Amino acid sequence: VTDVTLSEIVSRLGGVLKGDGSTRVHRIGTLALAKKGEITFLTHPRYQAQLALSKASAVILSPEMADQCPVASIATPQPYLYFARLAQWLEPPRLIPSGIHPSATVESAIPATVSVGPSVWIGPGCVIGEGVRLMANCSIGPGAMIGADSFLHPGVTIYPGCQVGQRALIHSGAIVGSDGFGFAKSEDGSWLKIPQMGGVRIGADVEIGAGTTIDRGAIEDTVIEEGVKLDNQIQVGHNVHIGAHTAIAGCVGIAGSARIGRRCTVGGGAVVLGHIEISDDVHISAGTLIAKSISRPGTYAGTIPALERQAWLKNFAHLRHLDDMADKIRALERRLSQLEKKP
Amino acid sequence: VTDVTLSEIVSRLGGVLKGDGSTRVHRIGTLALAKKGEITFLTHPRYQAQLALSKASAVILSPEMADQCPVASIATPQPYLYFARLAQWLEPPRLIPSGIHPSATVESAIPATVSVGPSVWIGPGCVIGEGVRLMANCSIGPGAMIGADSFLHPGVTIYPGCQVGQRALIHSGAIVGSDGFGFAKSEDGSWLKIPQMGGVRIGADVEIGAGTTIDRGAIEDTVIEEGVKLDNQIQVGHNVHIGAHTAIAGCVGIAGSARIGRRCTVGGGAVVLGHIEISDDVHISAGTLIAKSISRPGTYAGTIPALERQAWLKNFAHLRHLDDMADKIRALERRLSQLEKKP
Amino acid sequence: VTDVTLSEIVSRLGGVLKGDGSTRVHRIGTLALAKKGEITFLTHPRYQAQLALSKASAVILSPEMADQCPVASIATPQPYLYFARLAQWLEPPRLIPSGIHPSATVESAIPATVSVGPSVWIGPGCVIGEGVRLMANCSIGPGAMIGADSFLHPGVTIYPGCQVGQRALIHSGAIVGSDGFGFAKSEDGSWLKIPQMGGVRIGADVEIGAGTTIDRGAIEDTVIEEGVKLDNQIQVGHNVHIGAHTAIAGCVGIAGSARIGRRCTVGGGAVVLGHIEISDDVHISAGTLIAKSISRPGTYAGTIPALERQAWLKNFAHLRHLDDMADKIRALERRLSQLEKKP
Hints:
Three copies of one chain form a homotrimer. The first copy, chain A, is an alpha/beta fold and 343 residues long. Chain A is 15% helix and 28% strand. Chain A contains five helices and 39 strands. An eleven-stranded parallel beta sheet of chain A has the order 8-10-13-16-19-24-27-30-33-36-38, with no helix packed on it. A ten-stranded parallel beta sheet of chain A has the order 9-11-14-17-20-25-28-31-34-37, with no helix packed on it. A five-stranded mixed beta sheet of chain A has the order 2-7-6-5-4, covered by helices on one side. The radius of gyration of chain A is 27 Å and the shape is flat. Chains in contact: A-B, A-C, B-C. At the A-B interface, strand 21, strand 22, strand 37, strand 38 and helix 4 of A face helix 3, strand 39, helix 4 and helix 5 of B.
């Protein structure tokens, strides 16, 4: 797709067009910076002030905003979703030709529709689906399975026997199937390794961010259900179970055997301790540590404010003495009650 | 090993057998899910209720549990350690044949017992021990040393001159010897790099998790003593010293020149600031920030509870005003004392 | 450089020499461990006690310390900066010969002065500057640009179309240009990917640590200005903007569209939430979560003390009840005022 008219967009994706349907756009821009020939979108009232100044050729927005738009508009109840669909149409993924690069090492039979990039290694006994793309320097261990139409960016590692579902999108440096962290303390104080005998099972339509690591299970498998979206540098411990369509932001750590429900969201840098259960539709704020199971849907937070350093020193020092403070309040209450009883 | 009898297990690993010694098991299962032909273990009273329902062929447990076991059992004072030993026997590591893959680039002389996988690079001047396994896409810089029988999963990088001890197990994406973060501010506000001239020395029997990074020292070396176990995505700054048999969970950050003692444990996501000294046998809870040295063995924590969002807003806003709160309490105490002195 | 005299050092780098200018040194050591033939430095009064015991051949120090130095000294107002310059001179970066390794795959025209290591992939349409060094197993996507004299350690990935400035130093496992985390929720609860159409633009003289990930922009570019220094395992979200000469320590997470000013420093493990703006010359303490924009230069903190576990349990439990505590104080104040009004 090089450029399209607004009429073509509306006939394909719906929405109510206001303005000249023959206007052509070739690119999506931001509300603040889009120029003529670009289409943009307004999703949050916070940016409403930018609308009047927009130099875009058209704006995707919610119906109640259409009147305030100085240029052509497409009204839809969910402008962000509409933008996503339009962007997928205007910016289709890069086409990677099929075939095995001569520098790759392929020890399994693979379909002719697969693309295997430079210096990729595919061990023996793997099952690689139709249309899979493995970019440079990926390593696929023996017996691994990768579902059809999956795309692995350069430098992804899949450990032996792990299973990735269809249409996976896995970013560079992601690692699936490393050993869980399991050791028994022996009599002399050294650690004896527990062989990690389980695998990793990943459902369809999962995205895994750059540098994210997913450990294999100790005995049973680690499980990531369909539609889960994992951002960069997330650590998923052994035997974790993540429910369908849960989205987790960058730098989150999930300790072993934690179970996260469906349609949850976890903010960046949060930590979920091991053996915890989080029910469906739970939303955890960035930077929050979850130390107890959560059984009710809702939003949970546990972060503290950043203060200018002097204010921080003065206020946070009291954290070591909260119990004293509570004692003092109780003592005051007792003494005051005594006084109040006096005639 | 394909399958073994309970008698064979007890004769090799000890423990008190109760039940039919000729019972055969071929796999370890979890207490909840193990089936006939599988052996499982009970290590925590929390799971005791599952014992009565277990369908396993045998259970490893502590002597006082043996009477409550509905199937055959092996009693031992440390069931988890026993399980670890049994698992190591039943699930020996995959055998990787020796030899250099034709796509590898090997610029050092290496023993014939070494296995060098596809697209591995070994620079000049390296010393690679007997039986080392280097899986696909590993990069070993000039002058690095890797001790005998070490296993490097795909995509590990060892920087020039770094030393890894015997029997290391290093997971994919781990990086040993990257530059420490050292800069001097120059007069114009830009940063002048301090060349990182030290190396990394790692003792025997160390495991390093996926995506973990260990920086080389600025002048002296960064040191990881024998038996240390590092989980995934840990950052070890320059000149850190980690004592023998210390175990550190995922996503921990250890800043430069911190010194952690022997037999410590550090929970996931904890942060240890630079130039701090932590004595032997210290245990740090997950998510805790250590900003001061710790000189006494014990368990240390510094995390805060996650609350439902409304409760969080209501309670944590006071953190900015703890000092005011303390002032108010003191003022109340003074006023009350005045009143109490009245006749 | 193998060894130099103190006179040669002073004539090249300045400073006031005290002692024998013909003394030769060949290496930099630490104040505590430096031996004869080594030069060391004293930068912090904390280490002053070590000065009297130093066995180094010479010490770099500030003028007011020169009298207390038992060996030769070079006095300069900024000993650490002087040490950095001396170290750069004594320890020049390793020379890597130019040329393309036969196992590399190079699909772009590159200058003869470039070094391309084993199993490196350079896609089509790339622009690689003079003198660039790409160590083993790096992957450079189609259309990427890498400025002259940049050095990429083994296993770095640059995504398609991203731009790296001159003299970049990028450590192993770093990833530039992975997709930002952008999804729209569709009617059935699944997530629809927002194609990440922007790129990454990195200025000159930037260092990127091991395992650090920098996402490409959603529509506009992610921008890292000149002279920025990023430590290991930092996550930079899409459309983040980091101002010139800002230095960020390990394990920091910066969420999408955050804007960090010039000459800032961010301590290890800190988290900066999305769409936040931090002005120039702001310093953020390690482990601090920044949830609101900061418009004034200064130092900001938001961390809590680690306590021995029992003290932690006793004190931090009150955090759930701070609002009750504040209520109780107000009630006490009211009751006390009542009493005080009594005759």
